Automatic annotation (TrEMBL), chains A, B, C, D:
Enzyme class: oxidoreductase
Family classification: Belongs to the DszC flavin monooxygenase family.
EC number(s) on file: 1.14.14.21
Acyl-CoA dehydrogenase C-terminal domain sequence ranges: 267-383
Catalyzed reaction equations: dibenzothiophene + 2 FMNH2 + 2 O2 = dibenzothiophene 5,5-dioxide + 2 FMN + 2 H2O + 2 H(+); dibenzothiophene + FMNH2 + O2 = dibenzothiophene 5-oxide + FMN + H2O + H(+); dibenzothiophene 5-oxide + FMNH2 + O2 = dibenzothiophene 5,5-dioxide + FMN + H2O + H(+)
Protein name: Dibenzothiophene monooxygenase
Segments forming domain Acyl-CoA oxidase/dehydrogenase middle: 153-232
Organism: Streptosporangium longisporum
Family annotation (InterPro entries): Acyl-CoA_DH_C, Acyl-CoA_Oxase/DH_mid-dom, Acyl-CoA_Oxase/DH_mid-dom_sf, AcylCo_DH-like_C, AcylCoA_DH/ox_N, AcylCoA_DH/ox_N_sf, AcylCoA_DH/oxidase_NM_dom_sf
Alphabetized Gene3D superfamilies for the sequence: Acyl-CoA dehydrogenase/oxidase, N-terminal domain, Butyryl-CoA Dehydrogenase, subunit A, domain 2, Butyryl-CoA Dehydrogenase, subunit A, domain 3
Family annotation (SUPFAM superfamilies): Acyl-CoA dehydrogenase C-terminal domain-like, Acyl-CoA dehydrogenase NM domain-like
Length: 409, 409, 409, 409
């Protein structure tokens, strides 16, 4: 008789970690959950960052969870386990999870760089990862250019063999405690075609300004601010050049997936939390017998199960392909991104609907600002805006996968 | 570095078999798909059973796929693989898949009986399984009493140590080629409490009438008829007694899950087929550029992915628990049934919506009776009525799991 | 104190006629509803046209309901009243309503022609209307060219001052008892630009073939066939020329709205009927206490109310503008079409969902082909395909109204 | 030819007032809309009441809009017109509309009292209405008892022929500028059965505490606070006794409908505003060509039309019945409440979905706290909690209308 391992079932619903390292990470997080939950309401109200919480996470090694153990980290490398960890944090506070995600996903992509990149990139990655592993370094990423002026963030050669970084990035979560920033930019070198590049700079770099300007509808404790660059000098070894700007490179979808897919755990955690609050409230009130209450709870549980399953399935594909370099990178990119986008589209629909129904179940008391569901209602809306992609862009991406580009239509 | 097996990803979306036996079953089915697809329109129109198709399946051992190899079958035992096989058949014809499901799921539950039942039940199971393994026996089940008279199907003692079966069952798919029937009944023994029982009788049993009365909105080729019993004599060794009638036995939910969960593959297959027809049609027409077309296709693909993931996750849990006798049976039952019902609730919502949207994409031509989507539109509606449970009953079941019984509300 | 008339409330939900003529039409229909309902199952099964029903409607003047009383008709001219009449017929049989719609909407547009058209068109309209008013004439329209060959239906000059009609039309409901056909075509005159035109021809015109080829998923008794033209001679007085082909003429949206908007009543009637069947069934079974049943019924009733209100509002706008020639015709067209399309988009979503939920409420018995809900499930799907517009085209139309054409985007 | 009035169309979509008084009210509101819109962001952020706005509205007679002209008001009495006025205010600021609703609906129900009540109640109503008509009185209502202690608000006889009011009410909007409160209570008289009663007390009544404790998720400028009563003396002429407590009185549904139905205009206004912001934003950005953008806008417009139509239809029925005393009051109550609840259920689903989609259209910039859509996202959620009824209670109400009470099920 075939041996039936527990493995598949555990994957299938994003309920259990699948590696020992993931299990250890969850154990650590469990010890911090009460403090995270306790700090959440105040930081949400005031839009302040949970410094104490992150001090605690740092001391216990959580900020280095996805750093390889050889470099001082916990060595969690399965996206499934990272997403599950973020889910558990998000059940206590989604803002904290969003900020933590910045660090955990950064180490995942740096590890890939460290394992497979050119020597130069490997050295940079190793330096950063060792810092992250010891808890000394916190390295959020700046992906999105500040929209107002739509001025791209650029790297121009300085007079010394290095680079000058100018521009700005928005929505940089975790910035309040950042020690370094990893910034996506484009080169501007006279006589050469522009290239994509990642530049790393320390927080004390002259010309760098870290704003304190986050005032979101939700995710208010995530420290998601703008950072500005004014001729920041970057040493040549702190810049990794990539492909030519403007050329579509489907291979890059793999890295984008790794960077972002674990955020699906956050919105799953929000939905779980909302469901728990609603169910426990109506049970304690004795209103769980109402016809609509029973119907809504059944439908919520079915959706929650489905959402967890879809997220777990997308994570499983990414986990399978993330370290698999054997295939065509131009195929691997979409093979990772497409399940991610399918799951994200459903999460962005189902998670808000579960929070909405949770409020419906318990009524007007959830409309008071201090009610936990009021925070979840605001936090959960962030999911639709996480890159990649928004709904509008996801329709373009997925329909192009199925139907080809519009011009073929 | 951790070894990343393919396993999880393959489970995650119900795309690939997970055992060699499952792979062999899929290979066999692939050879029959053209014939199944070809026979489908005519049998749908006329409400006739695909005898030729089933002759072919029998010859190739597909009708014994889930019989243990020791008893002459293919030995497929993972529910995942069975569901995937039914998905593939359903892509060609859902009626054929529904009828085939009867045989495949029967052998699964008989195998469980053969492995874990009392001696008497094991012997009966072995006899039936050997017949199914060789292709000689086709054994659909009669679960649902004929609703009109709501007269229960009963077993009363005959004068000879055996039983007399009286009553009738409805919605017995696969009946046109049945050699035997497995019938759920209740005993009526003077002075004893009534018990649940399974009675097995051959098709030529005097008093048995197999009607030819199926005329469904859809699933018209599934041979889903009524069978009537008028004092049919059943030998004592062909009856397996179970628990006391009227007592709730949560352990029975495990068997019910095994019997029915693989049907989720059928509705997933219908949805996939509808999506393929729609996409290929608009591509061939050159209308794939319309805004609504692109939006609908992206949303369909996201839902299809999600549905597949939810089904795969529910199957994974059932596969893990199906042969696991170590826990409390009263807990195992709900642990299998709850994910099944969550997945079923979503499938019963998403699969019809995908077929609906597929018709929307290609317009009025899909409203002609002979169009493949017209058949899928009718077939897919069956999903909501498959036991266990309908939506109304599933709300009762799931809400009781979450909230306790109504009286607690 | 302001006088509060009953008027608004009656409009608001498509429940009562708003003119005496409308009331008389409803009275007449009420007398035929039992016969319509009785004939429905058989004609649905066999795909046959309800000749007896239409004989009865003709005798009572229903086929001339929308002909002005001066020309022998009942003089019903409010679209609201026509839609309500079709709703009532559709509650008994949707196919009959769809066929009847052909005649009633034809007389409405001919009446407009008779009142406001050029002398030539007035004469043609009057002749047809008198025939329709007396019950002698039945005049369905052919709008949609047969899709296979996509050959346009054209009028070329004959050698005698008249025209030759060649081509074919599909989805011509009511054709089995048609005495004449009103056919949309384009002129092909050497040296001239092509024009839109309406040609009227009698059923016995040489070269005209009325097929008997309707075999729909639903609406099977509507007599919706193809008609073919092979050099049919049309007298010059039986052709009305309109604008230049290929030029967008927003004014034409007014006539298209009048021709089609009353069909919304049909799908409202189907939904009402489905709701009634479901509610009466669960009441008679004693299963109306289930949590999901109560939730579904409440939601169905809310949707049904909403659908009726949206349809009534769109009809009110059309009724206000239909005979109002004072404004800019290029504005009147969209002012009528936009509310119609908004209402239609919701009807095409809500009516099927109500039928779906009705089946969910009563379960598997509604999956038998002979169950009334099985017919409604098939019939209601037609709504999405009625012109103008399908969902895909409606998105293009409505988004262009809101956002301008795509190139502006 | 029948005269086609504009009337129906104007009703049908809640676009135009239907009485001269309503038109005048809208004219007045139009002059205040810029100030209302300007004050909104700051008051939302700080949770402060827009005193200046209400000073302005008072000066122009808007606070007496629904007072009969004989008593110094504008004489607006059609619910349609009141709802439309609130819609227009809500487009500028929903909180302001919610607070204004308190005053406008209070005068409507007092007018009914003044016209049809017993002498004693007429006198009280007249006094209050004259104050409201002159702008001197602002009279919000306290309906909902403070939930924590669930202690009912009660009237006990004092030693002087009057009453003592004790208890508390929550969610009393407009309280910051209230001059009087109309409070629903139950009598406690030794030896008598408890009755429902309305007590009116001035703000300076000893024992009355008006809290400043509103801190909502949304509607933050509506001044929705708790008020507490500690043995407040109420003169006998300021109490109106109604039916026996605990007895179901369907007639009371009429007054409840009049009190609350016009709030549907508020949520329609929020949805309209959200749609306008989204459309103008994507047009100004040049992103209106995206497939998903076009699909979402078309669907939003269809839903917006439908929502407006449903609200208008429910208002039309209430307007017809509100002053119609000719029928059975036990039938009039449900005849008004049922359409109201159907419309409310759809509004509570559609308005949030339109705001959600508006955010989806314009992306992450709408997730900043200061973005207008961020306020609308919070404000619109209030709709689900407005009495009567929440979704859970509405399911009970509507299903009982359709199916009878649960015990019959």
């Amino acid at each position: 008789m075939t041996v039936h391992t527990e493995d598949a079932a555990m994957h299938g619903e994003l309920l259990e970690p699948i590696t020992p390292e993931g299990r250890e990470l969850l154990r650590l997080i469990e010890t911090h959950r009460p403090a995270i939950a306790e700090a959440a309401p105040g930081n949400d109200r005031n839009g302040t960052f949970p410094h104490d919480v992150f001090d605690g996470l740092r001391k216990d090694g959580v900020l280095g969870a996805t750093v390889p153990s050889a470099l001082g980290g916990l060595g969690v490398e399965r996206l499934h386990d990272v997403a599950l960890a973020l889910l558990k944090v998000a059940e206590a506070d989604a803002s904290t999870a969003l900020a933590l995600h910045m660090q955990l996903s950064r180490a995942l992509t740096l590890t890939y760089e460290w394992r497979t990149g050119p020597a130069h990139a490997r050295a940079l990655a190793e330096r950063l990862l060792r810092g992250m592993g010891s808890g000394d370094s916190v390295v959020p990423t700046g992906v999105k250019d500040i929209p107002r002026d739509r001025r791209l963030t650029t790297l121009t050669p300085d007079d010394d063999g290095g680079w000058l970084l100018t521009g700005g990035k928005t929505l940089v979560s975790l910035a309040p405690i950042a020690t370094d920033f990893a910034v996506y930019a484009q080169t501007r070198v006279p006589g050469e075609r522009s290239r994509y590049a990642m530049a790393v700079l320390t927080r004390d770099t002259p010309g760098l300004t870290v704003m304190d300007n986050w005032d979101g509808l939700g995710m208010r404790a995530s420290g998601t601010v703008d950072i500005l660059f004014e001729n920041c000098r970057i040493a040549p070894e702190d810049v990794v050049l990539r492909g030519l700007a403007g050329e579509q490179d489907l291979a890059m979808l793999a890295g984008q997936t790794v960077s972002s897919i674990t955020m699906l755990g956050i919105y799953t955690g929000i939905a779980r939390s909302a469901r728990e609050i609603a169910v426990s409230t109506i049970l304690s009130r004795g209103t769980a017998g109402a016809a609509a209450a029973r119907t809504l709870v059944a439908e919520m549980d079915a959706r929650l199960f489905t959402m967890r399953s879809a997220v777990a399935a997308a994570l499983a594909t990414s986990d399978r392909l993330a370290y698999d370099d054997t295939g065509d990178p131009q195929e691997r990119g979409p093979a990772m991104m497409t399940p991610f986008q399918c799951a994200k589209m459903m999460v962005n629909q189902m998670a808000p609907s579960i929070v909405f129904d949770a409020q419906t179940l318990i009524g007007g008391s959830s409309f008071v600002a201090s009610h936990p569901l009021a925070r979840l209602y605001r936090d959960v809306r962030a999911g639709g805006f996480m890159q990649p992609y928004t709904f509008v862009d996801a329709v373009d991406y997925l329909s192009a996968q199925a139907l080809g580009p519009v011009s073929n239509g």
